[in-house]
Specification:
The protein is of the alpha/beta class and about 375 residues long. It has a single domain, classed as Aldolase class I (TIM Barrel, Alpha-Beta Barrel), CATH 3.20.20. About 35% of the residues lie in helices and about 15% in strands. The protein is built from 14 helices and ten strands. Strands 1-10-9-8-7-6-3-2 form an eight-stranded parallel β-sheet. It is globular and about 55 Å long. The chain starts with 19 loop residues before the first strand and ends in a 16-residue tail after the last helix. The relative contact order is 0.14. The model has no long low-confidence stretch (mean pLDDT about 95).
Length: about 375
Amino acid sequence: MTDLHSPLSLSRGPAMKNRFMLAPLTNLQSHADGVLSDDEFRWLTFRAQGGFGLTMTCAAHVQAAGQGFPGQLGIFNDKHLAGLSRLASALNAEGTHSVVQLHHAGMRSPKELIGEAPHCPSANEEFGARAMSLEEVKASRDAFIAGAVRAEKAGFHGVELHGAHGYLICQFLSAEVNLRKDEYGGSFENRTRFLYECIEGVRAECGPDFSLGVRLSPERFGMDLGEILGLASALLKDDRIDYLDMSLWDCFKPPVDAAAGSRTLVALFGALPRGKGKLGAAGKILTGADCQRAMDAGLDFVVIGRGAILHHDFPKKVAANAAFQPIALPVPEAHLKAEGLGSAFLNYMKTWKGFVAEPQTSSAD
C-alpha cells in the first residue's frame, strides 16, 4: 500500500513531495489576451501553499487560434512571459513541482472567440471546422514545442501536453475525427505522429532536467479504449516521458466498452507495465478513501480537481485525516471565495449544477 504522503521522484525535475497533483482546471480568470491575472495567480499559488506535490496551470493555449474558452491563460507570445515567470517563481518557492499544461482546442475553439473558423485535422461539420493544411499541422506542432521552451524560460519545472477531452492532439488520435490521407492520418501510427513529434521536439529543445507529461482520456471524443491502452502502455515505457496523466471522468466505473471487461478504468490503466514513467489519474477522486483506493489500483499519484476547488489544502487535510471528506455540495459562495476563487471562476462554478448554493433571500417582516 503506497503512502500518499511519501515523495515521488520523476526522471526529470524536482521530486513531488507527495502523491497529489493539482488537476489542470479551467478557471476563466486570465486576461483576454492570455496574460496571467492576479486572481489566477492567487488561485494557483494558494494550492501550492496547500501542499500539492505538483501544481499545474489550467490549459494554456499555444496559438491564438487555439483558444478554447474566455479568460484562458496564454503561452503563445513573449508578452505572457512576465506573468508566467512571476507564477513559476511563487510556485517553486512553495516546494511544488511546477507545470504548465500546453493546449490547443482545435475544432473546439469557438469561432466567436478566435474570429475565424476553428482548425481541425479534417473538416468537421458539427463544429464548423476547416481542415488544417500540412503546413498548419507542422506550425501547430512547433507552437507546442515553442510553448514548452517559453515555460522553461519562465522557470517552470516542466510541461504537460494536453492530449485529452477532444482537443487538438486528441483530434489527431481519433479515427472518427481525423480523416487525413497524409502521414498524420489513417493508421494509429500516423494518428499518433503529431503527439510523438511534439514529445520529440520538447525533448530536443528543452533542458535535460525539464519534465514532460502527457494527458490522455480513454473514452468519448472518438477515442478507442484499446488504442488508448496501447498508447498509454507505450508512453509509460518511453524514457522521454516523465508521467502519464489519465483523465478518466470516473476512475471507479467499468469501461463503456463491455469487451474490456468489468474491471474499473483505474484498475485497467493501473495494471499497465511501465518503465521509468509514472502514472496518475483523475476522475471522481473526492475523499481520502478515494485517494487510497485509486493508489491501491496501481497509480503512482492522484490528480485532484473538484476536491482542490473546494479545499486549497486538500493534501494536508488528507494527511491529517485519512478518511477526510470535502464540504458537502452545494457550497456557499463565501466558502469558495475564501478558498481563493476569483469572481470569474466563481461565476463559472455556478454553471456546474448543484455546486454553488443559491444566495439566501430574507423576506420582510
